[in-house]
Structure formats: C-alpha cells, structure tokens
Amino acid sequence: MNTRERILRAAGECFAESGFDGASTRQIAERSGVNKALIHYHFKTKEELFFGVFDDYYRRLIGALVDSLELEGTFEQRFAALIDSYVAFLAANRDLGCVIQWEASGGKNIERVVAQMVPLFQRGIELIEERHPLTKEGDLAASQLLLSFYGMIVTYFVHTPLFERLLGIDPLSDDALQRRKTHLRRMLSITLQQLELRPPEPRAPSPSGTEEEPNR
Amino acid sequence: MNTRERILRAAGECFAESGFDGASTRQIAERSGVNKALIHYHFKTKEELFFGVFDDYYRRLIGALVDSLELEGTFEQRFAALIDSYVAFLAANRDLGCVIQWEASGGKNIERVVAQMVPLFQRGIELIEERHPLTKEGDLAASQLLLSFYGMIVTYFVHTPLFERLLGIDPLSDDALQRRKTHLRRMLSITLQQLELRPPEPRAPSPSGTEEEPNR
DNA sequence: CGAAGATTTAGGCGATCGGTTAAGGCGATC
DNA sequence: GATCGCCTTAACCGATCGCCTAAATCTTCG
Predict the structure, then answer these.
(1) How far apart are CA A213 and CA A210, in angstroms?
(2) How far apart are CA B187 and CA A50, in angstroms?
(3) Among A181, B27, B38, B190, which lies 20 to 30 A Cα-Cα from A84?
(4) ∠ at Cα B92 (B88, B93), nearest 5°?
(5) Rounded to an integer, what distance in angstroms lies between the CA atom of residue A180 and that of residue A184?
(6) Using a CB cutoff of 8 Å and minimum separation of 24, what contacts does B129-132 make?
C-alpha cells in the first residue's frame, strides 16, 4: 500500500472518530505511520485530504449501488438487492458512513454530500413512483419511504457502538448482519404489500381534495 | 435567561455543529455573549460543560417520553404517541439530537449515552414482546423493530440539512413534520398489522420451537 | 456603611493546531 | 559520475486551543 492510500485510510478513521475539526493532521500522520509533512505534500491542505476521503467513499458506494440496480428481477427483488448492497457496503466501510453522517447533519461540506446524494435519491423516487403510482402522494409517498429505509439502514451502522452495548452482541457480525438484512427485507415486503391495495382507511378529512394527476 | 443557561444553549449549538473537539470555548463564549473565563467558572472544564448539555438533554427527553408512555389507549395508540413525542422533541431540539448522534457513533462519551439509552430500549422491547409474543424472535423481532423506528425518526432530524436540499422544502416546517408523523404512524400500523397474523411465509426451518408463555 | 461572598473581567500560560521551509535520500536517465 | 524529478524528513511559523490568575465589579446582609 503506497503512502497516499495509507494516509487516506488513516484519515477516514480519524475523521469518523472525531469529525473534521477534531481530527488532527498529526494524529492522521501517526496512525498511518508517515511523516506529518507528507500529508501536505500529497494533499495540499487538510480540507483537500478530507475531499479525497469523501470522493473515494462516494465513488465506491455509487459503484456498488449501481451494480445492484442493474440486476434483473421483480421490483421487490431489485429493491431488496439495493438494500443488501447498501448494508454490505456500510458493514465494510462503517468509518466512512460516519463521515457522511457528520457532514449531512450540518458540516461545512454539506454541499458536497448534497451533490452526490440528490441524484441517487431522485432516481430512487422515480423508480418507486413509476412502479407504484400510489406513492406519488399520501402517507406512503416515495420520498417518505426512501427516507425511512435510508434511516433504518444507516442508523444501524452509525450507532453500532450504542447497539452493541444495547443488544449484547456485535452488530457487525455475520449473524447479526444477516438478521438485519432479513428484517429489512420483511419491512420492504410488508410495505410494498400495502402499495398493491387501495389505501385501506382514508381517515384524511379532506373531502374536497380529490384532484388526480394521471401522468403529468 | 441567566449566564449558565445561555452558555448551555450556545454550547449545544456549537457541539452539534462541530463536535466536541471542533467546538471551542471561545466560540461558545462569543455566541452566548459572555466572557470566555465564565465558562470555566460555571463549568470547571469543557468536558463538564459537555456533560451539562448532555444530561440536560436526556433529562428533558426522558421526561417527554415517559409522559407519553403513561397515556391510556390501545398498544398502537400508545406506541404512536411515543413516536409523536420523540418527533416533537427532536423537532424542537435538533441540535441536541446531533450531539447524541456524534457520541453514539463512537464518541469518547459513549458510556454516558449507553447508560441513558439502554433502560429506555429495554423497556420498549419488554412492552412490545409483552403485547406481541411473535416479536420474541424472527424477522420482526422487537429489537429490530425498535432499531428501525428509532432510525426512521432520528435520521430525519439529524440529516435535516441534507433532506432540505433533497426535497426542496423545510423538513422542520409544521406541514413537513405532520406528513412525517403521518407516515411513521402508517408504517407502525402496517407493521403491527403483520403481528396480528401468523407469519405468512414460515421460511424459518425451526419446526420444534413452538413454546408459548401466555402471560408470565 | 462596610465586610463577605458571588460573579465577571482582561490578560496571559504552555500546548497543540494547520501549514511552510530548506535540506536531504533515491532511483532513472544521460 | 552528474543531473534531474519525485518522495521524505526535521525544524519551525503564527494562530488558536483549553485553562488559569489576579483584580474588578456586583450582591447580600449585619
């Protein structure tokens, strides 16, 4: 492993543990076993080092997700494959998942997260609405569903240290990961099952609002 | 508002934005409009200031959740009330939600998070298993369900800056919050609906495990 | 009032921060 | 062997960090 990769790897760990401000270049240098000045040689500034970690992460994440999107099968099978890919990727790159969490929650590099995530999310919303027109509005709107499954997945990995003490097991063990995947597939299954039906209990007290936009 | 409270409020904002290491006492002093040395007068160290923010947060959160747990009604109504309480609390205290996120993801104060969260989660698991024996194992285990709803809720608020650009609306507006609550209630409804049935597809190859404990 | 205690202030401490500098190794090319 | 370009090193810079000290100000009460 060359110097640049060793720095990137150590930087990912440090940024995940302490955030951008909290991680110091000296700490990153020490963990990667290189001289401190080498960080500023390979990456001009600490910020560009962060971008290096960040872009490398999204390059690999998007690669993994796109691969799973191209699989054949029913909608549910493809969506389940997407979930599995995300889970597998985060299980192998938890540090980087934490970095995104830091930035998405209001870091100064939020625009860089947005630029990567927005196309992914909008493609997901299109896919869902295309297959299930009921998700264009209502309490199972595609955007709400995506946010929910996104939250179910990432929280499991970001909060791993908490859940480890909570459940008394290692949430990243093969066994626990398999159970989490099975649960998520089941949640997907019962959600899609609802979308095959008309809304069962139209409690919404909006008698006039019955406008419909067929395809727009 | 006295000095101590102003410091606590500003500290919560700074810790949420930059993490424990990234937030500086000078920044906190400036934002709260007090002299820098006053922070070390009212709170001996930066760490104790953090604990002050942290404990104050959990004191109020647990108070809000316990209140909702004492409401009358069906299991679904009480669970929905719990979700609503959590959503309302995070909507009003997003900063502090981010602080917990930082620590739960591996901060140095993880033990303090664990001490507060474990009793809450275990009480939740007990309540679910007591009402729905099916959740004692399988792909809708109570722990998995709690983790999922926890993730659906907290991610919405921690990732608010991301979702704001994603959806083109303010996720903390009354309208958006109401829609999120409605969605979460619907997700709860269709999940509990599954628990009223025998597992529809008993793929689990455990034919012997049919023990039942009626009330215990 | 005046003593006593609580609160607030300016200023400075050593340590660490991100980043720079100038001087080496070191292999490839001529 | 000399030269060049890439990589690495120790030493150092000004700025900022958490924290402390001593004096000033405010509050309380006999």
Answers:
(1) 10
(2) 37
(3) B190
(4) 115
(5) 6
(6) B131/B75, B132/B75, B132/B192, B132/B195
What three-state secondary structure class fits A29? helix
In this structure, which CATH number among 3.40.1380.10, 1.25.10.10, 1.10.357.10, 1.10.10.60 belongs to the domain A1-44?
Answer: 1.10.10.60
Q: What is the pTM for the complete model shown?
A: 0.89
CB neighbour list of residue A107: distance below 8 Å, 6 or more residues apart = A19, A20, A113
| Confidence category of residue A36, pLDDT binned at 50, 70, 90 | very high
Query: Which nucleotide is closest to the Cα of A21 by its C1'?
Result: C17
* pLDDT value of position A165: 92
How is residue B107 written in tokens? 């901060």
Of the residues A140, A159, A193, the best mutation for testing chain B's interface (the one with the most B CB atoms within 10 Å of its CB) is A159
Q: Which of A13, A19, A49, A43 lies closest to A31, judged by CA? A: A13
Chain-centre distance of CA B140, in angstroms? 20
What is the rounded distance in angstroms from the CA atom of residue B115 to the CA atom of residue B113? 5
Q: 3-class DSSP state for residue A133?
A: helix
- Domains in chain B: boundaries: 1-44, 52-195
Q: Of B126, B215, B23, B143, which is closest to residue A165 (Cα–Cα)? A: B143
Contact B162 A22 (CB under 8 A): no
Q: Is the dihedral of CA A124, A129, A135, A141 positive or negative?
A: positive
Instruction: Measure CB to CB from residue B98 to each of A105, A153, A191 and give the nearest one.
Output: A105
State which residue has its Cα closest to the C1' atom of C17. A24
Q: Domain spanning A51-195: which CATH class is it, in words?
A: mainly alpha
The shortest CB-CB distance from A110 to any of B102, B122, B162 is to: B162
Q: Which CATH class is domain B52-195?
A: mainly alpha
CA dihedral B207, B208, B212, B216 (to 10 degrees): -130
- List chain B pLDDT tens, one digit each, 216 residues: 789 999 999 999 999 999 999 999 999 999 999 999 999 999 999 999 999 999 999 999 999 998 888 888 999 999 999 999 999 999 999 998 999 998 999 888 888 899 999 999 999 999 999 999 888 888 999 999 999 999 999 999 999 999 999 999 999 999 999 999 999 999 999 999 999 875 444 444 444 434 444 443
For residue B18, what is the enclosing H or E element? helix B3-22
Cβ of B34 near strand C (distance < 7 A): yes
